[in-house]
Amino acid sequence: MSTLGTSRQHILLPWTVQEREDPLLMLDRAEGVYFYDQQGRRYLDFLSQLFNCNLGHGNPRVIAAIQQQAARPCCVSPVLMTEERITLATELTRRTPGDLNKCLFVNSGSEADDQAFILARMVTGRPKIFAKYRSYHGTMLSGLGVGGDPRRAAIEPGPAGSVRFYDPFCYRCDFGKEYPSCQLHCFDALERQLQLENPSTVAAVIVEPVTGAAGGFPLPDGYLLRLRELCDKHGILLIADEVITGFGRTGAWFGVEHDGVVPDLMVLAKGLTSGYVPMGAVIVRDRIAEHFEKRMFPLGSTYAAHPLACAAAMACLEEYDHGGLIPHARRMGEALFAKLHGLAERHPCIGDVRGKGLLACLEIVRDRKTKAPLVPPNTDSLLPMQIRRRAWAEGLHVMPRGSLILLAPPLIVQPEHIDEAIDKLDRVLGWVEQTEKIC
Ligand SMILES: Cc1ncc(COP(=O)(O)O)c(C=O)c1O
């Protein structure tokens, strides 16, 4: 870690109280599942930077693709077509489920969510978007406003038409029920809420197949299927925010595949280019695309489908395939969860272990019986930052957030890396228990 007092002098750091961040970790180089700071200390990247570096660092195929593309035209208006754009759109939609056949390329997950909301409103002519309380749909006014993540405080009351509903969050059921005997009581509540809001005013419902930083929990079995049916019944569009869950993260190409559901719009970013170049996309079903065959499509941006991003994304798709990385992620996910459950047996501070594939979450509690959270919701606490620093001191990069510790290693992770992470986590959690007197 650097003690450069001036290193953040001209930069606003994301998601933090600025003065708390000294000293900053100064990344120097990175390779595979590791990165190194300027002092040469090694960190096991068990977060894929920010859930995005699915292929790990320094992937030769992706680097070569970007280098080769850099020698070809890179400044190409979005209204012109290139081989790279056509190839990527073709190859991407070959992998997306059902008739998710047409791509709108953008530059980030936030932009993709924002454009998905606009598309849904245009196609249905309806104003409202339904989103879960425990959800994050990006940093734009629209996504931050509709999602329930505490980061929304910055822009409350948010854009009109945003409606939030209770999550299918089984560890802390908002209705005091137990899964599966609840028979998805939370879904019945959503159905009633939809009626009260008047379904004919609702353009879309957005969900993450596995909630990322806002909760780290998968939708329970059967939920997404019922949501698909409910949306169909009322002509509401279903948006799957696969910004984190896409591209093998959950052990399938896309998170919705675990439930065999085809959303109307699928929002992608992160693993699309494995973080090597910024890119996001909204993939839409045929009937959405057809809407614009004879109507104006008013969206677009200067850097949409940038040739460098297209080249990186195409190389990533090839790498996921050739490396057999999707089934590998599934196998490694099983190994990771087995070890995490073992860790939970040794650590009373672990209240819950959950997630899917290589997207895992530990919920840290002060008391397993009462489930008293380490950090109550909407509370400003130094603890998550201290845990992050403790993990860095162990040479481990994870995401402590509120009472959660989120893990998302690159898909190239091997069993020995999982062992290394568990060993380091073991010590970090021991420190949490000791300092917070949890036993
Ligand atoms: C589920 C989800 N949607 C959207 C976003 C926003 O993506 P980006 O940071 O690329 O704008 C994120 C970012 O973490 C995310 O986790």
Can you describe what's shown?
The protein has 2 domains: 62-322, Aspartate Aminotransferase, domain 2, CATH 3.40.640; 324-436, Aspartate Aminotransferase, domain 1, CATH 3.90.1150. It is built from 12 helices and 16 strands. The chain has helices at 48-51, 60-70, 83-95, 109-124, 141-146, 185-197, 223-234, 286-291, 307-322, 325-346, 383-394, 415-436, and strands spanning 27-31, 34-37, 42-45, 100-106, 128-132, 162-165, 202-207, 237-241, 265-268, 280-285, 350-356, 359-367, 372-373, 396-397, 399-401, 404-407. The radius of gyration is 21 Å and the shape is globular. Bound molecules: pyridoxal-5'-phosphate.
Q: In a nutshell, what does this entry contain?
A:
With 439 residues, the protein is an alpha/beta fold. It contains 12 helices and 16 strands. It has helices spanning 48-51, 60-70, 83-95, 109-124, 141-146, 185-197, 223-234, 286-291, 307-322, 325-346, 383-394, 415-436; strands spanning 27-31, 34-37, 42-45, 100-106, 128-132, 162-165, 202-207, 237-241, 265-268, 280-285, 350-356, 359-367, 372-373, 396-397, 399-401, 404-407.
